[in-house]
Target: tRNA-splicing endonuclease subunit Sen34
Amino acid sequence: MIDLYLCHGHVYVWNASAACELREQHRIVGTFVGALPRLPRQNVRLGRPLQLMPEETTLLLNKGIARLLDGSIPPKTGEEDLQAITEHRKQSFREQSEMCKNDRKRKLHEMASVIAKGRAAKRKKLAQKAKPAEEGSSSVSNNDVTSSSWDQPEEEKEPSLSVEEMKELEARLDKTTGYNEQAFLVQILTEQVTEEPQEAVPWNYPTTDREALRCQVFQDLWEKGYFLTSGGKFGGDFLVYPGDPFRYHSFYIAVCQHRTENMEALDIVRLGRLGSNVKKTVLLCSECESGEITYTSLQWTGMN
Model:
């Protein structure tokens, strides 16, 4: 039984294995809305929690695959649990400090040539300052003799750090202890840490005829073996995939339309042209009198 958490009207999946199970075994995709631990300040790739659509939640509850728990109230913890959590955070800080040191060592090896060039330039500058200014007058013949050597200067070797210098720099990094604990990531516990049983909460969806139709269409397409995601970006209710969205493009744009609801010709043209532009087939999904879902496909063929 997979645990789903209801928080402020949205349903989330926090457990990583549960999110994998939903996708691999039950064809439930969802949307990741959390930040990655190592890349928290970007929104290109997201991580847990996995947010589910209301239709996905309804399907999982009706099929008995998952249960819905209250995620808005934090669980009660005792003194021993608080000590365990505090120790866990301290251990996490120590591990992150060690990772930070390793990253700095790796950066040190990458910048070794730049550091060596800087040190060589500094030594050269100090040597020029210390050189006595007694070379003011010299014989013309000497200048003529050595002019050829100045015309063809020898190639200087690229400076590099010795093994002893690298060990010295790494030793300085090992002595670094000025890490600020408040600047590191803090792991937030998202599941019950104790074995205290939790009671399931009711799921009040669908509440309208349109929401009920969306749930019926979603379940019918899901039972036919398709993957479904939100279709809001393409002007529909769902995007329908023949396989995992990581491997396939969507074939259909599902638009839920009640059988008694009128539809203007302009809307039909709009949906047909939309599907043609994005190279997908628009499906008009409605419920017939027998309760089955019927599908009408729209394809823009133009005029001859």
Q: What stands out?
A: The chain is about 40% helix and 15% strand. Residues 137-141, 143-151 have pLDDT under 50 and may be disordered. The two ends are 57 Å apart (CA to CA).
